[in-house]
Amino acid sequence: MPETRHSSPPPPPMPTQGGAGWLPHGFRLDTHTHTDGQLVYAAAGALATTTARGTWVAPYNRVTWTPPGFAHSHRFYGRTDVRVIAVPAALCDALAPHPSVFRVSPLLREALLALTDRPEVRPGAHERLRAVVLDELTETAEHSLHLPEPRDPRLRAVTGLLHADPGRAATLAGLGRAVGAGERTLSRLFHTELGMSFHRWRTILRVHHALVHLTDGRSVTDTAMECGWSNPSSFIEAFTEVVGQTPGRYRAELRGRRT
């Protein structure tokens, strides 16, 4: 994902045990674990959660889920209004047993905001609201924004080249020549290790970067060109298929939340 350097004062610590806080663009929380489960929601901005299983990107219409015991890190893009909800280990069986991303419905968004905005004024109020959150999260998580990472060294070499330059226009055969592996072997490894084609994996990688660029205020056209699409129309089609809305609408809703 794009790196950002800045010399601003250190931000306040991320509310890892629950609550809300604003984090600056580029803030990173290094690899760690929790004894409880954790939902992390960017009410504004976007975040990437990385585990050994890969990376999930969550804009304002997604929430990330990390079960107890999974080592993970976070990186935040745009000035991020981060909301954290701890889920006691005893309740985690209701959710996916592995890190996931869930779509945020209007009811789920309001429940997440209320849990992290309001002090508890009646005994048990937060527990009841948390139950609403768990009910809203479907049993099957959404994986459209999940970018798995390979174990095979040949495939890792190829994905490393693409991580370094997502807009790279090379074919799988060309990438294979660069790392000393055959196109047919790499194609098989993408399917067996990552469960998707080379084209699909690179599309999701590019959409991850596109989300970051749009969150940072880039135009749809500039984002398309920088992330490797030959024209805005093909970018809009791919972005909409993965994210569930057009990049233009995503930018417009981002602006609305900032104001």
UniProtKB/TrEMBL annotation:
Residues of the HTH araC/xylS-type domain: 156-253
PROSITE patterns in the record: CU2_MONOOXYGENASE_2 (PS00085), HTH_ARAC_FAMILY_2 (PS01124)
UniProt keyword list: DNA-binding, Repressor, Transcription, Transcription regulation
SMART domains linked to this entry: HTH_ARAC
Residue ranges of the region described as Disordered: 1-26
Keyword Transcription: yes
Keyword Cytoplasm annotated: no
A Gene Ontology molecular function term of the record: sequence-specific DNA binding
InterPro entries: Cu2_ascorb_mOase_CS-2, Homeodomain-like_sf, HTH_AraC, RmlC-like_jellyroll, RmlC_Cupin_sf, Tscrpt_reg_AraC-type_HTH
UniProt protein name: HTH-type transcriptional regulator RipA
Organism this protein belongs to: Streptomyces tagetis
Lineage: Bacteria, Bacillati, Actinomycetota, Actinomycetes, Kitasatosporales
